Amino acid sequence: MPQQPYQPASPGGRPPEGSSGRPAEPPPSGSPAAPAPAPARVLVVDDDPTVAEVVAGYLERAGHVVDRAGDGPTALELAGAHRPDLVVLDLMLPGMDGLEVCRRLRGAGPVPVVMLTARGDEDDRILGLEVGADDYVTKPFSPRELVLRVESVLRRTRPAPGARPPAEAGPPSAGGLAVDPAARRATKDGTELALTLREFDLLAFFLRHPGRAFAREELMREVWGWDFGDLSTVTVHVRRLRGKVEDDPARPALVQTVWGVGYRFDPAGRDGRDGSAVRGGCEGRDGSAVRGGREGRDGSAVRGGRETG
Prior knowledge:
It is a single chain. By secondary structure, this protein is α/β, with parallel strands linked by helices. The protein has 2 domains: 40-157, Rossmann fold (3-Layer(aba) Sandwich); 173-277, Winged helix-like DNA-binding domain superfamily/Winged helix DNA-binding domain (Arc Repressor Mutant, subunit A, Orthogonal Bundle). It contains 8 helices and 16 strands. Strand 6 (173-174) and strand 7 form a beta hairpin. It starts with 40 loop residues before the first strand and ends with a strand. Mean pLDDT is 75; it is low at 1-34, 165-169 and 273-309.
């Protein structure tokens, strides 16, 4: 599928030396310097050489080691030779598309994926999240925003040098579920769960705040670290998480939908109660509850024959 041409931020696809065009000044000699994180290996997969060059340039300037691939088979070959810490993956690749590449990468082992999608292709974005992408950025995008998204994901998978886990009574656990943040391991009734990065973070957050209802905006801010974004990201991850932690994902008892609010984790939900906040209806695609009726064309809740927004 042809892609729109991408205009580099500066000649040669390289970022400017700083906001003023000059290299950043070093910190004062007496100031203690924070330990620098080890460079991450990032695999950039995009068939548009200009996009790949710009993205690689910004990531390299941020201190990362970058491998580049223009198609799916080459990406899988590079990932097999040098396992990346993160993959920036274009959805619309020739031949093997980004969804299939993501599936195969994940089949070989856990790896964070930031998907690049075309603006307005909501179904494609949701498909990318459904196959396990941890984040996505829509084209055309700001390369600096992409770097921030990449580093946000990396911080959750690669602790900073010298960082110590917070002192807690123990790993969060409730309702037969438990997470070990240091090992990035989650279990249900003792059996390990295959969770993506964001699914793990979402479950850990719910376990730390049992019984409290959170709006999707709050979850996006607390789990994703975003102050704004597409709320369908939260909805899709909740749906995927339910598919892995609920005894019956069609009737969720642990991660419940709260009418007019968002979601609540109820560790007592597995005691036989339904626990669902949706009565006589279903849950809309946007995560809202639908009572006594149907779902609107845009996925919003509909009551009594009219859309509620």
